[in-house]
Specification:
The protein is α+β, with helices and mostly antiparallel strands and 241 residues long. The chain has two domains: 1-36, no CATH class; 40-180, tt1808, chain A, CATH 3.90.1570.10. Helix content is 19%, strand content 23%. The chain contains five helices and twelve strands. It has a six-stranded mixed sheet with strand order 3-6-7-8-9-10, with helices on both faces. A two-stranded antiparallel sheet has the order 1-2. It has a two-stranded antiparallel ribbon with strand order 4-5. Strand 9 and strand 10 form a beta hairpin. The radius of gyration is 18 Å and the shape is globular.
């Protein structure tokens, strides 16, 4: 990347620059362009399923799905891209940004798991129009959905198994996990969202509340399991914020 591209950019400068790039995807983070990792085939299949299902349900509705090519404006100034989302505004055809984003979905991957679960999640929560944040495990049929409550705090719910359904009452939409994961087969055990009791996984979203991690748990950024200790050893989103 050139030195021009590396310098601090305004949002308009970033959009002017990013439209000239022929390779890779970029987000604007603290005034600098950040290249994003490419999606796996599993992640891509889930995103395509979600966009298709949402688009079919929302046909003729003012709210419409958008893809990972659409930017999401963070109030603090960053510009992010989710794997898919739903906007309920009146976007200009020439705009690069979602208008009134109401739902965002992130399909987790080993390279982005900590970032999506911490920084990006908190940034999304700051968007005033957002009602739903959905984190999807690509390797096992389970999701965690964050819903904004009437008091503007966030609650979360973990859904597990192909019989589970994501309820999205703002769109009168119920999204079965069987449809979200259509066309995929699964490993015997979960990896990214939440492990069963004592399961060892370095990709887990949920860290057991109120006690030290299991001896074989490898969930810390450096792989030692020693970085996060109580009282921070808890499940993201269980506490109201």
């Amino acid at each position: 990347m050139s030195e021009t591209a590396r310098r601090k950019m305004s949002v308009s400068e970033f959009y002017d620059w990013v439209t000239t790039q022929t390779e890779g995807r970029y987000e604007l983070v603290d005034g600098e362009p950040l290249m994003m990792a490419g999606a796996s085939r599993r992640n891509d299949r889930i995103a395509v399923n979600a966009i298709r299902l949402a688009g079919n349900h929302l046909e003729g509705h003012r709210c419409q799905p958008f893809t990972s090519d659409t930017y999401i404006a963070i109030p603090a100034g960053n510009r992010r891209q989710a794997d898919m989302g739903i906007e309920c505004g009146a976007p200009d055809d020439s705009s690069l940004e979602a208008d009134a984003p109401t739902l965002v979905m992130e399909i987790l991957s080993p390279t982005t798991r900590l970032f999506d679960r911490y920084e990006k999640l908190e940034e999304y929560k700051s968007i005033p129009t957002l009602e739903y944040i959905v984190l999807v495990d690509p390797d096992y049929p389970q999701v965690r959905i964050y819903r904004r409550q009437p008091d503007r705090n966030w609650d979360s719910e973990r859904l597990v198994g192909l019989d589970a359904v994501i309820a999205l009452p703002a769109f009168d939409f119920r999204l079965p996990l069987s449809a979200l994961y259509a066309g995929l087969s699964f490993r015997a055990r979960p990896t990214l969202v939440e492990p069963p009791e004592g399961f060892s996984s370095k990709f887990s979203i949920c860290k057991t509340a109120g006690r030290q991690p299991p001896a074989r748990w490898d969930g810390s950024p450096d792989g030692t399991g020693a970085v996060m200790t109580p009282p921070h050893w808890n499940c993201l989103g269980i506490e109201r914020r």
